[in-house]
User: Fold Iron complex transport system substrate-binding protein from Asanoa ishikariensis.
Amino acid sequence: MKMVFITAGLCAALAVGGCADGPVPAPAASAASVDLTNCGLPLHVAAPPKRAVTLEQNATEIMLSLGLADRMAGTSYQTDPVLPALRPAYDKVPVLAKLYPSREAVRVASPDFVYSTYTSAYAPDAAGPRADLAKLGVPAYLSPFACENAADATATVSFDALFGEIRDIAKVFGVPSRGEQLIREQQDRLAGATVPASDTSLLWYYSGTTTPYVAGHGGVPDAVSTLVGARNAFGDASQKWPAGNWEEIAKRNPDVIVVADLTRGGDGDSAQSKIDFLRKNPVTSTLDAVAAGRFVVVPGSSMDPSIRSVEAAELVGAGLRKFAR
Assistant:
């Protein structure tokens, strides 16, 4: 049986009831306390956290962008190089695991708040369910885009909804003005990314060569397409990331292909490997976008809801302006 070790530090961080078995009674509300409904579960934060743990990079970068490195007891699951502006702060935060930390690793860090933007972080073989953490007096936040139950999730990604998540975290940590400043900076960048509306169709090519995975309805690519005045070539697909096929892609003949640059190292992950494949594949080599070299490369991480998503908008907007000349 897997043992769970709870340190004295975590016991001190827990609410009234210490390390006793069973649910910990909620502390009395204070001026600094925050209550939210997060992905269908009540989230009570008695005071601004001082020992937060982030379970993957998107959550980490939101925290660091809010200037909260000194409130972090640990981070994990770095998928891409950290944004250069955030690197000095990131280097001060302990890394708990290369991927997701175990329940034991999370508890040894003595957190008073846990945050992730992916449901998988709260799997039983990772940090454990949010409800279990709540029983230990540790509030755990999950991005509204990735709730455990689909009915509780924000079904369609929008920048306004992403800003709502930033506001939640800023409120929890008692730094609402920093949240508003970060949101204004993101909004200003988005304003600079817009282009006049057109009928330009964009194929968002995420990964795979044998089976291409493309952007469907409701994700970041859909939101960016609308923002930059274009349309998602597979916006009629019900899934956010459907498995496509080259014959259907050729039939739709997109005007521009947005290529995700992934750092995983698998088949068709890097942007260049995708472009090389499109140029060699007999079905795709004659596409208008391929023949004319109308490719826009964006970091794969910017296609997930995060503070990086604004970069996808900027890159695609710049690409469309260049191709229009």
